[in-house]
Write a sequence for this structure.
């Protein structure tokens, strides 16, 4: 039975997701890390990495904040097992299984909450945002990376294949069918404003064939192909082979100079008054 709070549990627990998270961190973090400067945090702060997955960014945040204590929470124990295996044993990073809709954390517990690649994966994200706001200290910061599947663009070199239509007719349709928002990146600033946040900013990390190694970018799309071809096919009324063939066209474009491809990744931040 599908967990209504985690309708993508099968995909999130697949080994392809571990590959995906590693490639995404390699592609995104070099540009994203500078955004943390605006929060002005230093010293023994407390940080929550909500939806931490395999801990790719939890570990990078530990390096970025050498005196901080960090808690990584994920709903899947299999992800946390990988995170713990890769932990450097510094004693400042802890991992716990938890439900983002009902966090087992006290009110006003954290100076910074990072929530990355999760908002598009859960239904009714405003409920999760309310929990984030509860555990965030007044004056604390929310750092939110919200994917938007209308922000992937590939060259339309094959008259039989429209890559823009692919994401809308497959990925967005799949998300809608399980109660998730495949365009939540563009909707997130308004969600934060309604929740009472101030100093809201939206920046874009640009994952493209000029800024990111082509193999890394291709690895992200290949991992999505391996984990999502079948559910995307079911959502769009196509065959898995047809969906895989479309993924292959995009992967080939990324790998083949001078073709250009880009994924614009929204990163939204807000200050809890």
């Amino acid at each position: 039975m599908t967990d209504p709070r985690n309708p993508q549990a099968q995909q999130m627990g697949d080994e392809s997701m571990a590959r995906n998270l590693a490639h995404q961190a390699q592609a995104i973090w070099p540009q994203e890390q500078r955004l943390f400067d605006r929060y002005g945090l230093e010293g023994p702060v407390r940080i929550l990495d909500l939806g931490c997955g395999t801990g790719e960014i939890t570990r990078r945040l530990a390096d970025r904040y050498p005196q901080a204590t960090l808690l990584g929470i994920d709903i899947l124990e299999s992800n946390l097992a990988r995170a713990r295996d890769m932990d450097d044993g510094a004693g400042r990073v802890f991992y716990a299984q938890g439900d983002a809709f009902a966090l087992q954390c006290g009110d006003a517990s954290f100076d910074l909450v990072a929530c990355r690649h999760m908002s598009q994966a859960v239904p009714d994200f405003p409920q999760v945002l309310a929990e984030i706001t509860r555990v965030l200290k007044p004056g604390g910061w929310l750092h939110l990376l919200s994917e938007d599947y209308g922000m992937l663009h590939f060259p339309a070199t094959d008259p039989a294949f429209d890559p823009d239509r692919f994401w809308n007719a497959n990925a967005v349709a799949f998300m809608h069918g399980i109660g998730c928002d495949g365009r939540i990146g563009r909707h997130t600033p308004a969600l934060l404003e309604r929740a009472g946040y101030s100093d809201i900013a939206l920046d874009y990390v640009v994952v493209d064939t000029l800024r990111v190694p082509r193999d890394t970018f291709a690895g992200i799309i290949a991992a999505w192909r391996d984990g999502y071809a079948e559910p995307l096919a079911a959502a769009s009324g196509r065959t898995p082979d047809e969906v895989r063939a479309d993924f292959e066209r995009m992967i080939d474009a990324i790998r083949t100079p001078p073709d250009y491809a880009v994924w614009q990744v929204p990163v939204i931040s807000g200050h809890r008054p």
Observations:
- The first helix runs from residue 9 to 12.
- The chain is about 40% helix and 20% strand.
- The longest strand covers residues 198-208.
- The mean pLDDT is 93.
